[in-house]
Predict the 3D structure of the following.
Amino acid sequence: MKILIIGSGGREHALGWKINQSPKCEKLFFAPGNAGTSSIGTNLPIGVSNFEEIEKAVVDNKIDLVLVGPEVPLVEGIYDFFSTNEQLKKIPVVGPSKAGAELEGSKDFAKAFMAKYNIPTARYETFVAGEIDKAASFMKTLPSPYVLKADGLAAGKGVLIIDDYNEALAELNEMLEGKFGQASKKVVIEEFLSGIELSVFVITDGENYKILPEAKDYKRIGEGDTGLNTGGMGAVSPVPFADQSFMQKVEEQIIIPTIEGLKNEQIDYKGFIFFGLIKVNGNPMVIEYNVRMGDPETEAVMLRIKSDFVDLLEGVAMGNLNEKTIEFDEQNAVTVMLVSGGYPGDYEKGKEITGTENVKSSVVFHAGSKLENNKVMSDGGRVIAVSSYGKNMNEALALSYQNAQKINFEGKYFRKDIGFDL
Ligand code: AMP
Ligand code: GLY
């Protein structure tokens, strides 16, 4: 099979690494990929939203299956672009339809979906411009802090948690006036939930599903989970508190109603569902849906899947995922993200990355890199993910930290406390 992966981050490199191990994978392409993916496949210089160029590449390279990494092309309707195009409609896209991608593309849609299907989540209401008074009275029914969410995609920046009532109202005003552009023309206000978070993933063909290894990510830049939010500074899998009884609740109360709800709404959904969960008083609640795999969770999760991943993707494409098996590696897997100095604020790109060839006992995934005159240069805030196996979490972390020292680029920073809270 010739497979095209859309995207350019550590998630896509990790998906490609796993896919490349399958005897069913004949040739692997990335659009656009990064310096790391060019060592396992062919990078095509095409942006993730350039559907016309993607169409041309799929036809020219006789691609048999397309796997979509990031949410943006999904929310923009890449699945529907394929399914309604004469040339492309026989080529399966792993990723939901535009309607399904609304689970991530619109917080209001996701919340209404959860309400309709009795999926546990925070109490909420949605507001648009001119509804400040209504919002103010709703907020009076909530204890502080107040959680304000831009309805649309805001590159991970659209969620604000504010202690002070008046400050929250002022912020709401700014959001509705376009602080996050079109994305915050609608704002979801919800109850703050207190607990420990984790990421649960399923792959589904729309009828059947398989649960992938769960993970916990570390979103803040600073140690002890302090400072600004980032795309993710590291991840661990498994998550000790996600024991059998907890995961059973997740499956019964969240996963099954979500799959059944999508079916009931007649939403075409063949891809990943990422449940951003929080454990509150022993019970799982949904913080958010994502319609893709997590990043950096994928850089740990892929290490824990023993089964042939292409076989699973075929199951999604053919609608016979129920006939496939998924086997987990019992080892622990972790990933530690090396980021550019200054990230998530202003940072410089174009720093030469050296030493990755000296890493033998971890797997190196490129998150933000590009080749320039045969040199590997940093090309993003998150630069390299160092993933490792271990008999336990600490053993895996020790390997990642040891190998993180071998990789160098100017301004390199990483958190040294991944897994600290477990
Ligand atoms: P989201 O973009 O929805 O993932 O939100 C970003 C982060 O904000 C989440 O990972 C949580 O840490 C936090 N968050 C979002 N909603 C809530 C909530 N209702 N209660 C507590 N924390 C929340
Ligand atoms: N690691 C969280 C995300 O991918 O959104």
In short: The two ends are 40 Å apart (CA to CA).
